[in-house]
């Protein structure tokens, strides 16, 4: 990684000085926060999704996982919830629904990091736990809609509370869209489920519930594609311009658009950070899981090394060794091994009574 003119420009902007930043809030990223917390290192945690859990919550929230030590079976959502509880004593600062857009090494060895929403951090260590890349929602591609994202246009919101007492269009044809429409039907003024055709991919129970709500007049289904948006003089979204299955243009009024067009992983700007890559994965030293740039570590599915196995369990191991290595890197001295069973210092950090 080289210092650039851009890095100098970034450096003059206000940035919060921190010891560690973890990029990626999936299971390995969350466990990285825990291990750093045991070492007394405070963490800022960044993820492109609007909630913690990463791939586990996004791709298989209700599917069983059988290979987590000490837990015979749990779902992806349950694992994320357990890990979120586990990091609670360390109170990481979270920056959700934003992607790291720039990472530059400074002349003093620290790392300047900026996100897509303008968050700026100056950190001594970075831990990339981005899995197969940042999960980015597929966007509706019509002119002017980007200015409404976050207010009247929401991509893959984890819950539908924003629909309360509003005229809502849910856009999508998969399980997430069907479930969102069903959930919104209980609180919204009106719900329209919009898809290019009147066919939906969801489990039988969800489809049955959708059919019941359609029959009751609680959900309308429109088969059409979005071709544009209509806004008021104040810039508020008032309607969608649609092309229906018969080739006719129509206007559909709304207050809120919930978009569920799927999530796609993208390596994104990681590829531009000057780190050594091998087949789109970060090369690490297995003694410390540091990349070829001092202070930058990579754990989980984003890294590669001889014998690598893409398992959550392996990522937990990598995060543990990375935390020990980083603690020594930050302190400039060896770190003594302590056990959570007996260490009064670790008990204090965990907020538990020392027996």
TrEMBL record:
Q: Which reaction does it catalyse?
A: 2 reduced [2Fe-2S]-[ferredoxin] + NADP(+) + H(+) = 2 oxidized [2Fe-2S]-[ferredoxin] + NADPH
Cited InterPro entries: FAD/NAD-bd_sf, FAD/NAD-binding_dom, Fd--NADP_Rdtase_type_2, Ferredoxin-NADP_redctase_2
The cofactor(s) it depends on are:
FAD
The residues covered by the FAD/NAD(P)-binding domain are: 19-303
On the tree of life, the source organism's domain of life is: Bacteria
Single GO molecular-function term? NADP binding
Q: Which SUPFAM superfamilies match?
A: FAD/NAD(P)-binding domain
- Textual note on the cofactor: Binds 1 FAD per subunit.
Enzyme category, top tier: oxidoreductase
> Any idea which UniProt keywords this protein has?
FAD, Flavoprotein, NADP, Oxidoreductase
Subunit note: Homodimer.
Designated name of the protein: Ferredoxin--NADP reductase
- Recorded source organism is Diaphorobacter aerolatus
